[in-house]
Amino acid sequence: MQINTINLSNIQIISNPNLLYFDVDLLCKTRPIVMRPIQMVDTKQQYLKIKAEVDAAIHEVLDTASYINGKAVQDFTASLNAYQGAGFTIPCANGTDALQIAMMALDLQPGDEVITPSFTYIATTEVVALLKLKPVFVEVDPYTFCLDPESVKKAITPKTKAIVPVHLYGHAAPMEEIMAIAKEHGLFVIEDNAQAIGCDYRFADGTVQKTGSIGTVGATSFYPSKNLGAYGDGGAIFTNDAELAHKMKMIANHGQQTRYYHEMVGCNSRLDSIQAAILNIKLRELDNYIKARQSAAAFYDAAFADNEKITTPFVAEYSKHVYHQYTLQLKGVNRDALNAYLAEKKIPSMIYYPVPGHKQKMFSAFNLPEIDLKVTDWLTERVISLPMHTELDIEQLSFISNSILNFINN
Q1: Given 251, 281, 311, which residue is the final one in a domain?
Q2: Boundary of a domain, candidates 281, 308, 335
Q3: Would you state the pLDDT for residue 33?
Q4: Residue range(s) defining the domain that contains residue 378
Q5: Would you say the pTM of this structure is higher than 0.85?
Q6: What does R_g of the chain's alpha carbons equal in angstroms?
Q7: Which residues does the chain have with pLDDT short of 70?
Q8: What is the distance between the alpha carbons of residues 207 and 201, in angstroms, rounded to a whole number?
Q9: Strand pairing category for 208-210 and 256-258
Q10: CATH number for the domain including 180?
């Protein structure tokens, strides 16, 4: 793939000192340069920058042969707990297990209702169904893509036991309002923080907390593409409740505190030492990773700012955005045609999510009532996510944004 070089003397810094922006009109047809292939998430280039540390950490685990619950797991758990500002952190095998263990520990029973957005990845509601709880799908805010508090209020019944807000795409759900609703009705709040690790939430009084450490329980994922991604699967659970933390730790370890003495039904969900060693290194870089994503997002924002057919991600006053995804809303644009056009240009893009939860076949056995979620349905038809990761460079960002504008304007 080739693009034109630019005259460096004409590059203009627009607003972000960490990233250079330039106008496409300043592109010069001088000599062609080769651009790195564009990835939706470039984990390889990210690895190469920390390769020496990662390789040494992996070899240390291999040398000690402590593969399960070794020192690397203990060190990472302590570091993550300090970063989150949580009372307790329990590592586990993946983000889906984290949600399941949380719901098991809260003693939710078959038939109990759990309020959740329909516009989210299926794992959020899959565990609800797995435990034979009843998912109650509600609406999201059209700007933040996160749970709409008014929709939550309308969905509460005597059978409601928990609310699961999802910090979607890296933006925080309105936790202050959600926590107030939960307190009024005596409900648990289980934060799905799989896409927003490192996100700061600012309360009305000015205090700041990390998402995932605000609700009764927080759950996150270390899937490789996440902002804090392992080189395999992994997850973690957060809580400020000591008794609940103890229970979740036992559930994750076959329901036992002492080996071979099983006090409750549990599961086998462990973060291995190699993944923990890798994650401990990457955790030290997480804030820098977030800044790189924010700089890439700022480039996209500037490129699309004046196009009435494109709505760029909104950021509420209460939330920092950590841009797990950079998701556009399109107006009057054939999204499928744009998706195909970008593929021809070797630009990856994704649609998160084309089928909302309330329309998924897997929930048909629950005999859920017909519901009208206009915002959710509107979003599923109009959102498209662009490449977003820490290794995007000016050439790639310009090529992506120029390609999209070329399609939309022609």
Answers
A1: 281
A2: 281
A3: 57
A4: 33-44+286-409
A5: yes
A6: 22
A7: 1-33
A8: 8
A9: unpaired
A10: 3.40.640.10
